[in-house]
Amino acid sequence: MSGCCSSTAQCEGTNRFFSRWSKKYARDYRKKGLAKEQRMLLEGLRAVPLRHAIILDIGCGVGALHHALLKEGAARSVGVDAAEGMVVQAKLMAEQVGVQDRTEYHHADFLVIESLLPQGDITILDKVVCCDGRLDELVDAATRKTGRVLGLTHPRNNLLVRAAFKIQIALAKLFRWKFHPYWHDWVEMKRKILQRGFDLKYESSTFVWNVLVFQRSS
Q: Is 1 part of a structural domain of the chain?
């Protein structure tokens, strides 16, 4: 679904920024594998049966997380990313690891095409909530699309991480960058997910990232 990211300045900026770095992301993954916080996220997601699961990967990047889940027994995955370069690399990676027949990709703003996407048994938002200014809409849409488990990573609310994000945001406003990260109320985000019928099943963290896995209540 090429071109679905030209509708907003935010999406255009995200597309340009992450497409520029997409080949480096792919090279780093091939060389180093999953980052520590991604390994933690997989650990939390493994708490539920993966066999026959449909994965909805929002902000899928180069596809590392859903490729790993497919190799562990998930049935198929749908990846959505605002950066065209990331989608290109994810497709190449899927072919390299032999899961291309079970993957589907959209270069698009997830909030624009939400209604066109299937519901996921497992929904992933890895480092996505800090790249979008529309947190409430994103949480609403992601929880609607989640049948069983929602896993996400967000910046830790400590002094150094918060200061680093706030500096980047200030510089972006000063120099009118088309992309910048966002700092949200992460406690309130967690509360809203719980209010939407989920229980927190897993939580861990690195120095920079907090990892949360929620399961829909019985």
A: no
The dihedrals phi and psi of 212, each to the nearest 5 degrees, come to: -125, 135
- 49 occurs within a structural domain: yes
Q: Which amino acid is at 94?
A: A
Domain that holds residue 140: 9-216
At 91, which CATH number?
Answer: 3.40.50.150
Exposure of 65 by Cβ count < 10 A (0-12 exposed, 13-18 middle, 19+ buried)? buried
- How far does the chain reach from its first CA to its final CA, in angstroms? 35
- pLDDT tens string 136-182: 999 999 999 999 999 999 999 999 999 999 999 999 999 989 899 99
What is the tally of structural domains in the chain? 1
Does residue 20 lie in a domain region?
yes
Distance set, CA 94 to CA 91, 174, 178, 204 (Å): 5, 39, 30, 28
pLDDT tens by residue, 66-123: 999 999 999 999 999 999 999 999 999 999 999 999 999 999 999 999 999 999 999 9
Task: Kindly state whether residue 129 falls inside one of the protein's structural domains.
Answer: yes
